[in-house]
Amino acid sequence: MNIGIVCFPTYGGSGVVATELGKALAEKGHKIHFMSYNQPFRLNIFSENIFYHEVAVNDYPLFDYPPYESVLASKIVDVAMYEQLDILHVHYAIPHASVAYMAQQILKSKKINLPYLTTLHGTDITLVGRDPSFEPVIRFSLNHSNAISAVSESLKKDTLNTFKIDNKITVIPNFINMKEYMQPMEHCNKVKYAPKGEKILVHVSNFRKVKRVEDVLHVFDRVRKETPTKLILVGDGPERPAIEALCRQLNTCNDIINLGKINDPIEVLSISDLFILPSETESFGLSALEAMAMKVPVISSNSGGLPEVNIHGKTGFLSNVGDVDDMAKNALYLLTNENRLQEFKANAFNHAQKFDIESVLPKYERLYKQIIDN
Ligand code: GMT
Questions:
Q1: Pairing relationship of beta strands 87-91 and 31-36 according to DSSP bridges
Q2: 138 CA from centroid of ligand 1 (Å)
Q3: Sorting pLDDT into bands at 50, 70 and 90, what band is 200?
Q4: Per-residue pLDDT for 129 more than 90?
């Protein structure tokens, strides 16, 4: 198939899913045309089946807001016509679903049929999407999508509760390429970060408010009072200054290692003992799945789709949002008993295998085929 993929290129789950999906489809022989305003950050490979079409929005003094949607719609029309796309897959409803609809209508006037699949990732429904100023456009463009997929049962439910959707929503979970998580990691030396044999907690995110990174610091503060521990923070974003201020206030900065943005956190995860994800809302929690694939159990909130990924009492523990005492108690329960920690590590790894790309990719291929055949 000739598949167009539209996504945000920025550091975040929807871009990672779109990119990894495109890479895997290309490996199976499909031709993949990425359209984005920057090279997606994990699209750092050479493949004869992958093409990147940049959406370059010019900065005219007249515009307070650059017309990204119009330029993207034109790009989709151009790529669809000249690369003969069979299908368009847009990631993140806002504004990609309505842009896809507009491109589809333009192509229709040229007697070209371009069906589109909209994949919902989370904040496009649970945060941004709840803003009433988007409602008519989201509802319309979702109802006109040739198909909709959501990354968890929880997100499907949230979408149906938030919008009046007549279209069917197919759940296709986030995935990982297990092969990449099973490579030898001997070169990653834990001693550099934990010289006295301390345990390592890790958090990976884009440091947005919704991630509640301050809760990570509060959990860490409680845990390190009981057992020697270090905290590694991976990522960057708007909450970073507040986090730096909080670690000074808690007097924990010396035991926190800020690594900033890292394209692929596999190596850091390979030296970590527990992953902390206390998010306010999380439609799936791809970062938790990536941790589990590296045998790192997860201490998380129980919001959104997290219970579909992190199995309470098996691959880690779930707590109510904001209950840092419970999260710290659960972390200590694992960190202070090596046999128990090893058992949870093995469970996390085994559960992660259920989300291997090998089993998830055919679900997307089937959906593409259904849409094209209709
Ligand atoms: O979590 C973020 O801030 C990034 C966000 C995105 O849209 O890129 O991630 C969302 O999509 C991921 C991939 O489907 C999910 O694994 C994340 O759970 C989801 N984030 C939220 O729902 C907050």
A1: unpaired
A2: 18
A3: very high
A4: no
* 18-43: b (≥16 Cβ within 10 Å) or e: bbbbbbbbbbeebbbbbbbbeebbbb
Residues near 203 by beta carbon (within 8 Å), at least 6 away in sequence: 213, 216, 231, 232, 233, 234, 235, 275, 276, 277
Q: Probe ligand 1: pick from 209, 275, 283, max atoms within 8 Å of CB?
A: 283
pTM (predicted TM-score): 0.94
Q: What is the DSSP letter of 115?
A: -
* 31: three-class secondary structure by DSSP: strand
pLDDT, one tens digit per residue, over 60-74 is 888 888 899 999 999
Which of 19, 36, 96, 123 should be mutated for ligand 1, with most atoms under 8 A from CB?
123
Q: Where are the beta strands (DSSP E) in 213-295?
A: 229-234, 256-260, 274-277
* CB-defined site of ligand 1, < 6 Å: 12-15, 17, 92, 121-123, 126, 151, 174, 206, 208, 210, 279, 281-286
pLDDT at 41: 78
Q: Of 80, 23, 16, nearest to 47 (Cα)?
A: 23
Amino acid symbol at 42: R
| Angle at CA of residue 342, ends 336 and 345, nearest 5° | 115
CA 84 to chain CA centroid, Å, is 29
What's the mean per-residue pLDDT of the chain? 94
Calculate how far, in angstroms, residue 254's C-alpha sits from the geometric centre of ligand 1. Answer: 30
Q: How confident is the model at residue 34 (pLDDT cuts 50, 70, 90)?
A: very high
Cβ–Cβ under 8 Å, residues 3 and 31? yes
Rounded CA gap, 206 and 275, in Å? 15
Distance, CA of 293 to CA of 155 (rounded, Å): 22
Atom of ligand 1 nearest to the CA of 281: 23
